[in-house]
Amino acid sequence: MKIYHNQLQQTLTQGFKPVWLVFGDEPWQKNDSLAKIKSHAQQQGFSEIIRFSSDNKFDWQQLIDEYQSMSLFASQRIIEVEFTTIKIGESGNKALLALSEIIEKNASLQDVIFIFHGGKLDGPSANRKWFKTLSQYGCYLPIYDIDITGLPRWLQNQASNLSVNLAPELSLLLIELFEGNLPALEQELQKLSLLFPNNQEFPSNQQINLSDAEQLVIKQAKFNPFQIIDALLLGNCKKCVVMLDQLQQEGTAVGQIIWVFHKEVNQLYAMLDKLAQGKPLNDLYKEYRIWDKRKPLYQHALTHISLKNAKRAMSRLADIDLISKTSSEFNAFILLADLCITLYDGETMQHFSLNYEYT
């Protein structure tokens, strides 16, 4: 059974699940999911938690031994297994399949809950037999990043849970300042709930406005190179520049960002070239494995970026790569901002040289 974070609370009320699989990289949703699963189990009498952390040398037989042993402290237990790597090898695969068979045989006992969690699963790992088998006995909860389109709803829900009534302009500011950093945004909401409690001085129906809070919040937005690509595909060059500046301040290696841009710009050029030859867009989505949720991004990019500009961007990116490796006199992040604009306004940008000194 596969569910998502917003379905977790309801799923917890639908009966006993012997296995929970929580995998993904977004920290707030992951920690919140694990806390809710454990809290609900503890309310049902699962008072003991046994924790394991797996690595390349982990003895997977320990899980079977622990499951089959009698606890000295509680009749109902939670066995939590953190995957520090998703590559568990053949021994791990066999042990987890054996564990699955034992769980199935003892399904009526309902005395042990397994919680497996770790980073984002890749396709091959999610298709391993052990994972599919365990998923059948419980719930798989993949954790995905909340993108900019889903962040306003998340913010509204969390503010409501904390009885914080945000004015629209304050919501927009918080989204801008904390995009990509849900733990910091949650902390900021908790701070606002403490500073503006519901009382006679500040009743619940009164909104916290921008002037009330703007001196209290701290900019803690966090971005990764792939989020820049999303903004780029939507033509939001201004946001790309903001993200590049933030990544530079965080000390992100420019080579990593260039690699992501190189992969994406080359793919855009190839897709535009095939579109020009008459290949249907839906066929391109299949060929390049574009997920449904990302199709609107590519549809915008492929209708607003010309083949000529994509070619200009490829040439410019090659120059940026060379400059970043051979000279320290230029700021590669500024050059990448130039690249973003070139994709959409290459006719103008082609007249501007990349060979300018950064001071």
Describe this structure in words.
The relative contact order is 0.08. The protein is built from 17 helices and 5 strands. 56% of the residues lie in helices and 9% in strands. The longest helix is centred in the last third of the chain and has 23 residues. With 359 residues, the protein is α/β, with parallel strands linked by helices. The protein has 3 domains: 139 residues, P-loop containing nucleotide triphosphate hydrolases (Rossmann fold); 63 residues, Helicase, Ruva Protein, domain 3 (Orthogonal Bundle); 125 residues, Zinc Finger, Delta Prime, domain 3. The mean pLDDT is 87. The chain has a 5-stranded parallel sheet, with helices on both faces. Strand 3, helix 4 and strand 4 form a beta-alpha-beta unit. The protein is globular and about 75 Å long.
Name of the CATH homologous superfamily of the largest domain = P-loop containing nucleotide triphosphate hydrolases
Radius of gyration, whole Å:
25 Å
- How many individual domains? 3
- Specify the structural class: alpha/beta
In brief:
Strands 2-3-4-1-5 form a 5-stranded parallel beta sheet, sandwiched between helices.
Describe the protein's topology.
Blueprint: H1 8-12, E1 19-24, H2 27-43, E2 48-54, H3 61-68, E3 77-83, H4 89-105, E4 112-118, H5 123-126, H6 129-137, E5 139-143, H7 151-161, H8 168-178, H9 182-195, H10 210-213, H11 225-233, H12 237-249, H13 254-276, H14 281-287, H15 295-304, H16 307-326, H17 332-349
Parallel strand pairs: 1-4, 1-5, 2-3, 3-4
